[in-house]
Amino acid sequence: MNGSDITKESIYLHRRKFIAAAVSLLGTSSAFNKVLAANTLDEQLTSLHDITHYNNYYEFSTNKEAIAILAQDLAITPWEITIGGEVEKPLVIDVSQLLNDFQSKRFVYPLRCVEGWSMVIPWQGFQLQQLLEKVKPTANAKYVKFNSLFRPSEMIGQRRNVLEWPYVEGLRLDEAMHPLTILATGLYDKPLPKQNGAPLRLVVPWKYGFKSIKAITSIELTAEMPTTSWMKSSPSEYGFYANVNPTVAHPRWSQRREVRIGELKKRKTKMFNGFENQVADLYKGMDLEANF
Ligand code: MTE
Fold first, then answer.
1. Model-wide pTM > 0.85
2. CATH number at residue 141
């Protein structure tokens, strides 16, 4: 990602104040409630317009404002997802069926891009944990690898080698099973817009935005750590973990502060993007600077 991409600050006259209730807590387990209650954000949501017109999606373009237009050509039905690798019950399922199988809930999360900007997004989706439990990971499963769609006929950015295609991301299995990690199917109470990764996109709120892979077509459980697209493209700049961490600078810029889209003054970046209480235990004893 290019440092000069960092936010063009824009002022929105018609801001509405929201108290962002994190989720509807109805019908959820108490452990789940605890995590989500802790995650209730008393913050203004980023406008729907900004969320859907300031995007990173290199399959279409490296121009953030162009993606809202270019992504509309993508056909998203039918859309099959394959879940396999180190699992007892591999699965091939259409996204429409997934939406029937898993009740979607509201998750309000800040998205912090490694480039230094952030947004607060009201997602709908379900916990990745639910899907992984259904396929039953084997004892060998240690990591989860995600692949995005490769379809250069509709994704015109894939005609250039900006990255190696398809876009690949990965998580450690315990990160993938964490109750904060979701597969998003919508935002602002609408189906997920194409520019935001329709029909299915990962959201890992304590990690930099590039981990939140869009347009997922397959999920593979593996014994070895997968090499992600950004690790291949720029290994000294983008690591596997990519946890939001204000004390570990990107080689080309500091990560201490961020611009919340819609605001003028920079704010301080929080450790693990504000989710330290919920996720710090995952990294106990780990050198976070070496495992960036
Ligand atoms: N997923 C795919 N398939 N391709 C991408 O280029 N960009 C990532 C992530 N997921 C990207 C992707 C980056 S760098 C960020 S910051 C977020 O998507 C941006 O998500 P948004 O456009 O919904 O804000």
1. yes
2. 3.90.420.10
